[in-house]
């Protein structure tokens, strides 16, 4: 199941990449037309930011169910959906990675219900004697917009060897929902993996940058 999910998500990511190139080409044509023929205010047809990131902390997660905190890189397709790659950790021994897709019914920048699907792999305990968990999760939920904070940070440029102040907007959301997970455990002491379905609730705070 996990291999099938990876096989679906990777071609979709390639399709989005090509669509992004076409969108940027169309944007350049429109802007060139504006520069030549517009006598009034030039209309900005620039596409939204393609990449951003987020950090989540809480009880489990809509991305990888067995997670306390995670860091995620997102590729935005539009204001309603995104592909993501995430790495997560536990309080003690435990870490994992996952790739997935998330769709918001309203908008990702405001309060909205959502649906997330993620193929993931996790190791609990040590690598030599721990338990490996691999599977796929389908997670419906709701994201409440809690507020936005703007702050400045210093950014260093290796090209010019100078530093400058960069403004960053951080939006905070409360995510709550339930994950339907199909996964198997790969124990070092067992020869046959155990396949199981599970329902896991989650609640977490997510800060988007």
Short description:
This protein is an alpha+beta fold and 209 residues long. It contains one helix and eight strands, in the order H-E-E-E-E-E-E-E-E. The longest helix has 36 residues, at 2-37.
Which structural class should the secondary elements be placed in?
Answer: alpha+beta
Write down the oligomeric state: single chain
- In sequence order, what are the helices and strands, one letter per element? HEEEEEEEE
Q: Mean of the pLDDT scores?
A: 78
Report the helical percentage.
10-25%
Span between termini: 32 Å
Strand content: over 45%
Q: Could you say which overall geometry the principal axes of the C-alpha atoms support?
A: globular
Q: What is the spatial order of strands in the main beta sheet? A: 1-2-3-4-5-6-7-8
Biggest sheet features: 8 strands, antiparallel, barrel
Please report the number of helical segments.
Answer: 1
Which runs of at least 5 residues are low in confidence (pLDDT < 50)?
41-47
């Amino acid at each position: 199941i996990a291999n099938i999910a990876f096989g679906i998500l990777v071609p979709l990511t390639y399709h989005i990449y090509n669509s992004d190139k076409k969108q940027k080409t169309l944007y350049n044509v429109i802007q060139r037309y504006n520069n030549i023929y517009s006598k009034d205010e030039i209309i900005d047809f620039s596409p939204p930011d393609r990449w951003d990131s987020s950090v989540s902390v809480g009880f489990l997660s809509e991305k990888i169910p067995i997670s306390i905190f995670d860091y995620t890189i997102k590729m935005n397709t539009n204001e309603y959906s995104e592909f993501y790659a995430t790495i997560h950790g536990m309080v003690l021994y435990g870490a994992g990675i996952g790739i997935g897709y998330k769709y918001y019914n309203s908008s990702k920048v405001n309060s909205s219900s959502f649906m997330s699907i993620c193929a993931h792999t996790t190791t609990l305990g040590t690598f030599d004697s721990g338990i490996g968990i691999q599977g796929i999760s389908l997670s419906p939920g709701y994201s409440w917009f809690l507020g936005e904070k703007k702050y400045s940070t210093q950014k260093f440029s290796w090209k010019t060897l100078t530093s400058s102040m960069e403004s960053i907007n951080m939006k905070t959301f409360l995510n709550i929902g339930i994950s339907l997970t199909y996964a198997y455990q790969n124990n070092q002491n067992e020869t046959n993996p155990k396949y199981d379905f599970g329902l896991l609730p989650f609640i977490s705070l997510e800060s988007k940058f």
